[in-house]
Automatic annotation (TrEMBL):
Keyword DNA repair: no
Family to which this protein belongs: Belongs to the binding-protein-dependent transport system permease family. CysTW subfamily.
Species the sequence originates in: Glutamicibacter bergerei
Annotated ABC transmembrane type-1 domain residues: 87-297
Protein name according to UniProt: ABC transporter permease
One matching Pfam family: BPD_transp_1
Entry keyword set: Cell membrane, Membrane, Transmembrane, Transmembrane helix, Transport
Bilayer topology annotation: Multi-pass membrane protein
Protein localization: Cell membrane
PANTHER family noted in UniProt: INNER MEMBRANE ABC TRANSPORTER PERMEASE PROTEIN YDCU-RELATED, INNER MEMBRANE ABC TRANSPORTER PERMEASE PROTEIN YDCU-RELATED-RELATED
Superkingdom of the organism of origin: Bacteria
Keyword set includes Transmembrane helix: yes
Transmembrane segments annotated in the record for this chain: 29-51, 91-113, 120-140, 176-198, 219-241, 278-298
Length: 307
């Protein structure tokens, strides 16, 4: 009888535990549903609409901007054959800007997160300065670069004075200006993830590396850089992805055939040419291309934290 009672008690406890687990499971579902709904309404649904619109066709004799549902896959062939150079240029500009942002931003993040760790006030001031660009408009910052790089500006005049830039040379409306604008505008997206990662770096590891007779350069490549890899990967992704689809910098600092990016083309097809299927096809191609490149990048260089 005792064994039976214990067995019954054990069965009751297990049943109660099962009920508790079920309640926890339902609670988890209730918490996830709002987020999934938001993702569906503001991400999945627009992508589905974009994909369907990219297959629309214009009937014979239809007015400008009039399209009907169809399965016109030729839209993709048409836009890719016409604008593949702009697509490649966009990824090239974004890659250069990402590399420059990394080279500029990593030392900045290391200085604030590691070197100034014992100086709280100065660290806080520099951190505020790092995020200060977010306090002003993206377009205003880009417009300021247009004034800085103008022909009558001090940058162009100085370069002409030291014979680096020809007397009739220009900085605006060049790839240099577009890449400079991209690098500046997306630099905080590179610095902040690296800063957050380096902020958790245990400096005792650097001391141990020095005790083992490692040079500062060896300590950096063997200790600091590997431990900050998640921040570097996050920063490069946060910089490259929006830079590839940007059109503000190309429109304000470039705005010619040699600086046109795919974002400008999409904007023009949507609002000027009124070619909704072509613009939607280009948007979907850009999104898919970025997704493929990012997936390959993470699989090749990613870390466990990112996977």
């Amino acid at each position: 009888m005792v064994m039976t009672k214990k067995g019954k008690i054990a069965d009751l406890r297990s049943a109660e535990e099962i009920k508790a687990e079920r309640r926890k499971g339902r609670t988890g579902v209730y918490l996830v549903v709002p987020g999934m709904l938001v993702l569906f309404l503001f991400f999945a649904l627009p992508v589905i609409v974009l994909l369907s619109m990219s297959l629309y066709a214009r009937p014979e004799g239809a007015e400008i901007g009039e399209f009907v549902p169809a399965l016109e896959f030729g839209n993709y062939v048409t836009v890719l054959s016409a604008y593949w150079s702009e697509l490649v240029r966009s990824f090239g500009f974004a890659l250069i800007a990402t590399v420059l942002a990394l080279l500029i931003g990593y030392p900045m993040a290391y200085l604030v997160a590691v070197r100034l760790r014992q100086h709280g006030l100065l660290q806080g001031i520099l951190l505020v300065l790092l995020i200060a660009p977010f306090f002003s408009s993206f377009i205003l910052r880009t417009q300021a670069w247009k004034q800085i790089l103008a022909d009558e500006g001090w940058v162009a005049q100085t370069l002409k004075l030291i014979a680096v830039l020809p007397a009739d040379g220009h900085l605006t409306a060049t790839p240099f200006a577009v890449v400079a604008g991209l690098t500046y505008n997306f630099l905080p997206f590179m610095v902040l993830p690296i800063y957050a990662n380096l902020g958790r770096l245990d400096t005792r590891l650097l001391e141990a590396s020095g005790d083992l007779y490692a040079s500062p350069m060896t300590s950096f490549f063997k200790v600091t850089l590997p431990l900050s890899a998640p921040g570097v990967f996050a920063g490069t992704l946060l910089t490259f992805i929006p830079a590839a689809g940007d059109y503000v910098n190309a429109a304000l600092l470039g705005n010619n055939r040699n600086t046109t990016m795919i974002g400008q083309v999409i904007d023009s097809r949507f609002f000027k040419v009124i070619d909704y299927p072509g613009a939607a096809a280009l948007s979907f191609v850009l999104m898919l291309s970025i997704l493929i490149l990012v997936t390959l990048y993470i699989r090749r260089f990613g870390t466990k934290e990112l996977m």
